[in-house]
């Protein structure tokens, strides 16, 4: 698989999975979202909002990421409309994936071996580079303990990460396999079928995060 990378507004990598489709390497991190919070003029995203989110999924610095807490580096407990606001801030072509796009990406990446990250992603800004490399070490160890054989999809945390918001035929669904400590195993990504959280526009769940796709300058 030829590796082609696109970077988002913060400099975080997105991997090409189809000719015109790039997928965030990992679910959206708190570091990425904090850039948005510093730049957002929407009063909905104030300190009280962020404190509520952090209460459900506390923050961890890249230096302290481990197999027991790596999910704390990522943003979760967000609602779909909030994820859409972040996508709009990222720019043209960024959006939440459809359920079909997420499922296709998983099938493509699950057939590929893991990558040597020092080689492929070595030019990231230092803080993001540390987060990616430490997350890889932690997630690899967590998968080993659970007896998982990892693929490139696992390296992107499409398993043992979060349930992730997807646009599932004009309703909000979620795909992925969250780490069991977050909320148990609710879905198997290889099924290609989303789960449908109750009241997606109102209830915050610590196991629900998101990532974006970028479609070559399209919205």
Describe this structure in words.
With 219 residues, the protein is an alpha+beta fold. It has one domain. Helix content is 35%, strand content 15%. The chain contains eight helices and ten strands. It has helices at 30-39, 47-56, 80-90, 99-110, 117-120, 126-146, 152-155, 180-183, and strands at residues 5-7, 13-18, 21-24, 94-95, 159-161, 163-167, 172-175, 177-178, 208-209, 213-214. The strands form three sheets. Strands 1-2-3-10-4 form a five-stranded antiparallel sheet. It is globular, with a radius of gyration of 16 Å. The mean pLDDT is 90.
Using brief descriptors, characterize the structure shown:
alpha+beta, globular, single chain, five-stranded antiparallel β-sheet, 219 residues, 35% helix
Give the arrangement of secondary structure elements.
Elements: E1 5-7, E2 13-18, E3 21-24, H1 30-39, H2 47-56, H3 80-90, E4 94-95, H4 99-110, H5 117-120, H6 126-146, H7 152-155, E5 159-161, E6 163-167, E7 172-175, E8 177-178, H8 180-183, E9 208-209, E10 213-214
Parallel strand pairs: 5-8, 6-9
Antiparallel strand pairs: 1-2, 2-3, 3-10, 4-10, 6-7
Order of helices and strands: EEEHHHEHHHHEEEEHEE
What is the residue-averaged pLDDT? 90
Task: Give the structural class.
Answer: alpha+beta
The total strand number stands at 10
Which range best describes the helical content: under 10%, 10-25%, 25-40%, 40-55%, 55-70% or over 70%? 25-40%
Q: In percent, how much strand structure appears in the residues?
A: 15-25%
Detail the poorly predicted runs: none
Shape: globular
Number of helices: 8
> What Rg do the Cα atoms give?
16 Å
| Spatial arrangement of strands, main beta sheet | 1-2-3-10-4
How many structural domains can be distinguished in the coordinates?
A: 1
The major pleated sheet works out as: 5 strands, antiparallel
Distance between the termini: 26 Å
């Amino acid at each position: 698989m030829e590796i082609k990378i696109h970077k988002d507004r913060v400099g975080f990598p997105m991997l090409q999975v189809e000719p015109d489709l790039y997928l965030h390497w990992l679910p959206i991190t708190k570091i990425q979202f904090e850039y948005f919070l510093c730049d957002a003029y929407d009063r909905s995203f104030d300190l009280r909002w962020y404190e509520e989110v952090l209460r459900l999924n506390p923050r961890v610095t890249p230096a302290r990421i481990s197999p027991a807490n790596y999910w704390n580096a990522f943003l979760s407990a967000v609602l779909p409309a909030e994820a859409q606001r972040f996508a709009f801030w990222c720019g043209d072509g960024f959006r939440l994936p459809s359920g079909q796009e997420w499922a296709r990406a998983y099938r493509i990446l699950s057939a590929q071996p893991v990558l040597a990250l020092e080689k492929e992603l070595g030019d990231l800004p230092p803080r993001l580079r540390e987060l990616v490399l430490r997350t890889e070490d932690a997630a690899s160890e967590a998968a080993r303990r659970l007896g998982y054989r990892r693929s490139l999809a696992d390296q992107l945390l499409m398993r043992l990460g979060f349930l992730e918001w997807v646009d599932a035929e004009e309703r909000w669904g979620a795909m992925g396999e969250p780490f069991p400590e977050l909320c148990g195993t609710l879905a198997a990504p290889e099924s290609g079928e989303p789960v449908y959280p109750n009241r997606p526009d109102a209830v915050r769940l610590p196991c629900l995060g998101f990532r974006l796709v970028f479609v070559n300058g399209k919205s």
